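Lecture notes, unit on protein representations.

Consider one protein chain, 514 amino acids long.
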Amino acid sequence: MNGSIIWVLAAFVIYLAFMVVIGVLYAKKNANAADYFLGGRKLSGAVAALSAQASDMSGWLLMGLPGSVYAFGTGQAWIAIGLFIGTVCNWLFISKRLRRYTIRANNSLTLPTYFENRFHDKKRVLLFISSLTIVIFFLVYTASALAAGGKLFTSVFGVDYMVALTIGAAVILIYTFMGGFLAVCTTDFIQGTLMLVALLVVPLAAYGIIGGANITGTLEASGVSGGASAYLSLFYNDGKPYDLVSIISQVAWGLGYCGMPHILVRFMAVKDEKELNKSKGIAIVWVALSLGFACVIGVLGRAYLHPELLSGGEEEKVFIEMIIKMFTSDYHLPILGGLFLCGILAAIMSTADSQLLVSASSVAEDIYRGVLKRDADDRTVLRMSRITVFVIAILAYIIALDPNSSIMGLVSNAWAGLGAAFGPTVLLSLFWKRTNFQGAVAGIAAGALTVIVWDYIPLVGGQTLGTVTGLYSLAIGFALSLLAIVIVSFLTPPPSDEILQEFDDVVNNRNIEM
């Protein structure tokens, strides 16, 4: 092991140890289930903002998105554009009303509990199907984060993928298992800051090394399809003109935001609306810079790494390879390179921990105490939560064992499932008072099943509908879910006067106790 790698390893060890210490410190502050799942609704604006966005972006931001741009060109930035629009709308229109409604709806701690209380579901049908949906799709989502961690450790240290995967999964499991929501949010705040610094510094340094006048020529020399002009155009993909269906599919990623439990729970946990207002500006600026520079990394990485060419699934390692080359060959600052590589690890960990926690809350709070054992006390629920974190992590680990699994592909499927199942239901539950219990059930079922059928069942000549049409399952799933809620709500009895009164209280900010 050479001197540079030792410094990089030192940075990783210090960083990982720091994350574990945070988990240990916050373990003492979890007095009950509300503390473990929502931190007692005590988040500050800055922590809520960076925690929400860091948990959102995952290793996809620093590996999946730059890798796609590196391979196919700037046209892949339509995903970033869609996500930015979705983020802005989520903070401006969803965050405040959701926080109010979860308080008014019997202080709901989780998204499934909110659905149950919002629609006065005495039979707990909504609680069960929404919790089950979260667990299924979060398994895939968590697996994508663990796979990203495995690829990172393998690239940097040359260790076997399975060993690398095990190390990353173990650290995430420890501090999530012990510390709960406050530990996750605190580490996410630190990780969100580190991610942003890495995203800004590395491409700017690469630009300085390449020289602005040399970028186009170097891109041409790297063999980009269609030439540099097509590669740098939003309306070309892999050298071919972008069709409307592909652009719609990529922008449709933004629809997923209003249905992501691990993001929505941050809105619910902010201590007051004044802090929530602070969060909006911080989050929007963070996501604009992060998405923009992630796309820039893909382009500059192609030029900076030339004549080396990443292919065969290695494209997702472009940011890793840039950092290694820059800080071991060009600047000889391996400790700094190690810290920036920790920024990639931060992106991975900040999402995986949140997904584990939301999955745990769905099983322990919603299914176990909500359906199976209604008289369970907080101590029992906390114990069940930690068992669930462990089990979900192991199952996600098994899914991630394939070293050839695509981070982009895993995230795409999970994002579509959650967004289509929950997005329309959250949206209409907050803004359309005629939405009823039957409509909510129909919407969740229609969204989740559409994504499963669209992406996984070969219905046309041995191919899935997603492959044949080229249309992202989230777009069709969101539309069908929205339609199902409206049609079924109109065909069934309207909500009770009590439910309508609660809706009016939220709209007019009355009877909100916290």
